[in-house]
Amino acid sequence: MPGHLTLALLTGFACSAALAADIQVTKTEDGNDGVCNADCSLREAIQQANATVGEDRILLPAGSYRLSLAPLREGFVIVEEDANLNGDLDIRYNDLVIVGTGQDRTIIDAENNSRLFDVHVATRLRLERLTLRNGRTSDFGGAIRNRGSLVLDQVALENNEMFGEMGAGGAIANFNRLDISASRFSDNSTYGATGYGQGGAIYNHGCGSATAASPATSAMTRPIADAAARSTTRGSPMSPAAPFSATRAVSTVPERPFSTPRAAPSS
C-alpha cells in the first residue's frame, strides 16, 4: 500500500495507557551515568523511561539541550548504536511523551553529530512544544527515524540534514505511523546518490502512514543555491565516481512531503 497523507483537524490525542511516571530533567548537559536522580540529563531520563513499564512523560524546562556525546564514524558514515550511549536518543520498549515549554524556549540540538531521535519498532513517542535542531545522519531521517508511532504537536524542525548516498528524509524518515499538528519545518535538506535523497523535510516509506493537521507549516522561503534548488546531480563526496543529487528545497506538509522508497532502513 503506498504511503498517504490525509489532511484533518486533530482535536486531541487519546493516550491508551495511564502515565507511569513524570521524569524531570534537571540539566541541559548531555551524559549518561545510568542514573536519573537530582542530576538528570535528557539522555538519562530516556534511559530510565526505556527501563520502566507503562507510558512515561519527560518534562523539559526551558533551555538548549545539546547532544554532545558524538557517535563513532567510519569515514563519512555515522556508526549507530541502540543502547542510548551516544549519538541519537533511542526510544525503545515503551511509550514516551516529551514535553517542552515552547518552540522558542526548549531546544534539543544535535550539534550536527547525529540525528536526534530513533523511534524503534513497537514504540510510541509524542513530542510537544519544543524545537529539534541541527540533526545530521548518513542514513534515514536527519532529525528522527521513526519505525514505531510518532506524534509531533507544536514542534519545530530546523536545519536537519541527511547526507548519505542511500538515505532519505532531511528531517524525518517515517516507516510506520506519523501524526503532525501545529508544527513547522524549515531549512531541512537531503543529499544522496541519484534515486535516493528524497524528502527534504519528510520521507514516507511505502507502507508508512502519515496524518498532518492544519496548521502544519513550511518555510518555503529561500533556495540554498541555484543548483541545489534545482536538485541537480553532482559527484558524491563519499564516492567521487557516483552521481550525487542535492535536494535542498525546504518542503513539508502538504508540499511534496513524501517520496517512493528505494531502500529499507537498517535494523
From TrEMBL:
InterPro entries named among the record's database cross-references: CSLREA_Nterm (IPR026457), Pectin_lyas_fold (IPR012334), Pectin_lyase_fold/virulence (IPR011050)
Domain of life, source organism: Bacteria
Protein biosynthesis among keywords: no
Region (Disordered): 226-267
Sorted UniProt keywords: Signal
Sections of the chain in a coiled coil: none
Signal peptide positions (record): 1-20
Record protein name field: CSLREA domain-containing protein
Source organism: Pseudomonas mangrovi
